[in-house]
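G., before I forget:
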Amino acid sequence: MSNHIFLQDERLVVLDQRELPFREVLISLKSLEDFVKAIKKMAVRGAPLIGIVSAYGFAFGIKEITERKGRLTAPDVERIYMKLAKSRPTAFNLFWALDRMRKECEKHMEDKSLPERLFSLARSIHEEDIRNNMTLAEFGSNLIEDGDTILTHCNAGELATGGYGTALGVIRRAKEKNKELKVFITETRPFFQGARLSAYELHKYGVDFEIVPDNHVGLLMERGLIKKVIVGADRVARNGDTANKIGTYMIALCANNHSIPFFVACCSSTFDMSLKDGSSIEIEERDGREVISMGKKWITSKSYKARYYAFDITPSQLISSFITEKGIIEKPFEENIERLIGR
Ligand code: MRU
């Protein structure tokens, strides 16, 4: 179904994104611990992909326990749910997918075919994500004009989803439709999702791009080199406040200052309709050592303190519109998100 995530020999095989773009290393996940570790350590990342991997992880976890104990209890289900849910707190797709899996599990608790049912639901979540990405990419590509120069941050491409991509999906679709475009990719310190992953993808699709250090955004905008910004999202509240990779807020502020349209591309599975606004979105804080090291190398003294918030919140006023599989969501967001996404 996708080259970076597929089932094979009773295992989930995923591409280890920490190794890209230099090596395409596949890793196999089977035990619940394998899944939790792959998400926490960012072998797999990106909100939609985290959701899909956790759905498969849930199915593998339930299968493992049923085979070992010969039966399944409600506390077992809760333990598996919580282990996966705690892996990365900001991505809403994780909870969205796990809730669907838990519901299915509770409905068929006594059923012998429960593991197969769960695998089949995980596969549907995966397939649905690819379909939705392609639909939103089609909508989004209509917003791209010939000659556009687009800035994107982090990686919201095929690698971050079940397949095809959201923000990069829009760019990819526009390229497929032979639109003339150029992309600036922020390197996205400290994990370099931009320089390593978005660049790897755009290179594959033959899109003209340049990587820029994160601190170049102001100058590029001031010089008129950016016509549009398109980013993905990890969680969107009911009023449109959006959690995405750290640095997104700064880019949105800058775009707003220069009257540059700022688009958020994401599937409806990223909208957390339980949240009135972005103030209660939990921001993941990662180990500061990831800021002062690059792979196995220290870039400064390892005795120095460092801080690493993985996401920030862009207030909805700075967002021009949302590109989703249900259509383009314009302002007023509160009303239009409720109408188009409302679950
Ligand atoms: O820390 P990451 O790499 O998981 O963060 C990813 C992002 O912030 C993406 O922009 C977001 O998840 C959307 S991916 C379609």
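DSSP finds ten helices and 18 strands in the chain. The radius of gyration is 20 Å.

More on Monday.
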